[in-house]
Fold this sequence. Notes:
Blueprint: E1 2-9, H1 13-24, E2 29-32, H2 40-43, E3 47-48, E4 51-52, E5 57-58, H3 62-80, E6 85-87, E7 89-93, H4 97-106, E8 134-137, E9 141-143, H5 145-158, E10 162-163, E11 172-174, E12 179-181, E13 184-191, E14 211-220, E15 230-234, E16 236-242, E17 245-249, H6 263-274, E18 281-291, E19 300-303, E20 310-314, H7 320-337
Parallel strand pairs: 1-2, 1-13, 2-10, 7-15, 13-20
Antiparallel strand pairs: 3-9, 4-5, 6-9, 7-8, 11-12, 12-13, 14-17, 14-18, 15-16, 16-17, 19-20
Helix pairs in contact: 1-7, 3-7
Amino acid sequence: xxxxxxxxxxxxxxxxxxxxxxxxxxxxxxxxxxxxxxxxxxxxxxxxxxxxxxxxxxxxxxxxxxxxxxxxxxxxxxxxxxxxxxxxxxxxxxxxxxxxxxxxxxxxxxxxxxxxxxxxxxxxxxxxxxxxxxxxxxxxxxxxxxxxxxxxxxxxxxxxxxxxxxxxxxxxxxxxxxxxxxxxxxxxxxxxxxxxxxxxxxxxxxxxxxxxxxxxxxxxxxxxxxxxxxxxxxxxxxxxxxxxxxxxxxxxxxxxxxxxxxxxxxxxxxxxxxxxxxxxxxxxxxxxxxxxxxxxxxxxxxxxxxxxxxxxxxxxxxxxxxxxxxxxxxxxxxxxxxxxxxxxxxxxxxx
Length: 351
């Protein structure tokens, strides 16, 4: 039998960051994942934004999340010798004059450290519509989730820390202080399965409110280029990828929860994009994934109420890039040092 401290099921954003946090703590892990089982992390734009545009307030725990995120991803880049963490300003064209007035007012409050003071008039007006001007969100950007996850997958494979298969719940034997999966004995199994948690017989009771998202990749025609260090956000986001290629998203769908892209999703994105872009574009890719969103929009972290050797780290939703490093560290401290979990993230809130 092979012994390890933790088995982690799922190598999406949540599972990868939790696994690496355990390794940084000096713990042993085995990651179990079937490639393509859940696509949401891999296709995501990976945007991080400390501002909620709808109310122009700080995102939940933004002040705590950003330093933790910066430290984790910079360390990961050094470890893997690969760049995947990019600082970019999110440019917000104003849809109405009141938005600009509120932005100026809020820029003098606590949230002001994330709001640009500069107002742009007709920013790159040969490419986008911004007749009322625009400003920028600071301390924002994106994680290239595809490169991030592939780099860590290779890293775990090289160290024989990854078991590439679909997890079989019937092969699990649960004890009070340990759990056995096939020939592996661990202190705990932690499920980081994304929306597939609904199929988990031990955690399917958690109140997921899943959301399907679709994105397209486009190329702009001619010599029109959006600066690589900007993300346009007006109805949709337009994320520069380089070589005049851009990722555009995203849709929100609560009924059709397949991972298949749809014509409806594509047409919705095209319609919104045409309200932002003045120039023609061609679509080069179209993808879809299901986000593990939760009814109260908070993570799902903690131990199973009846089986303490089973745990969950999930429900990071649309803000996983920001949330995962902070809460992975908190969960490791909870498991290893008996420090408390945030009450808003602890699954005990649903007991």
